[in-house]
Description:
8-stranded mixed sheet
Amino acid sequence: MLNFDGQVVVVTGAAGGLGRAYAELFAARGARLLLNDTAADGLRELCATLDAVADTNTVATPEGGEAIIQHALDAFGRVDVLVNNAGIARPNYLDELDWDDLAATLSVHLLGAFHLSRAAWRPLRTAGGGTIVNTSSAVGLFGQQRSSGYAAAKLGIVGMTRVLAIEGAPHGIRVNVIAPVASSPMAGPVYGLLDPMLDPKFVAAAVIALAHDSCTLTGEVISAGGGRIARVAIATSAGAFVPGLEAEDAARYLASLPAAEQYVTPGSAMEEIDLIRVNYPQLTEPMRYPEPQS
C-alpha cells in the first residue's frame, strides 16, 4: 500500500473538485496536509474533516506562493510533496479574449506553479529531495477551441516541469505532470454523457502514485481519467537532412510529410539537437549541458 505516514503534502486549489479528491486520498494514506484555496468556506469545512491546516493565500503572486510554503513549514517543519492544482477557467475565442482574463489565467495556472515550486525548492533541497506534481491538460497538449490562454498556460507548465526535472535530479527532487480528465465544477458539462464515468478519484490515484517515494519517474506527463492512465510523450521524427537546406527544400519536405513516421522522445533539448549532430560525422562528441557556474 502506498502510504505517506509522516510526510507533509501541500495541495493548492483543494476546496473542491480534483484538489479535494487529492486531499482526501492523501489524508487516508497518512499524510499531514496543508490545503490551500481562496474559497475559504469550503476549504475550512474540508480541513476540519481531514484535520488539515487551511491556507487562503493566492497562488497568483510570488508573495502568495512564499506564504503558502512558509505556512506549511511553520505548521509542520517540512514539505515533502507539492501538488500544484489551483486553476481557473476563462474560456473565449482569441478575438474576444479579455486581456484581464488572460492575465488571470496565466497568473493562476502557469505563474502559480512557478511561485509555489520556487518557494518549495529550497526546503526540498535541504531535506534531500521530494516531489512536485504539476497540472497540465489535454487542452494544452492537443488543443481545443476557445482555450488559447488556458492552453498556453498548461503547455507552459509542461516546459517548466521538464526543466525542473533536470535541475532537481541531482538533489533528489522529482517533478512530473498530471493531465487530468475528470468531472469537476471547472470542467462543467464539457464531457457530456461520459461525465459520470470521470470520478476525480481515478485521477487522485495517479497523483498518489506519482507523489509516492516508490515512483522513480521524473519529467513525465501522465494522463489519467475514467480508469485509464497513460504516458504522454513529446516526440520528434528523424526528419530529413538536406545539406545547405533552402526554402524550396523545406517546402518539399513539408508537402510530403508521411501519415506515419517513427518518432523518438528526447530527454532534453540537447538530446534533440543531437539529431542534427549525427548528420555531421566530423563532430564525434554529443552535445552536453554546460556546467552551472558556482
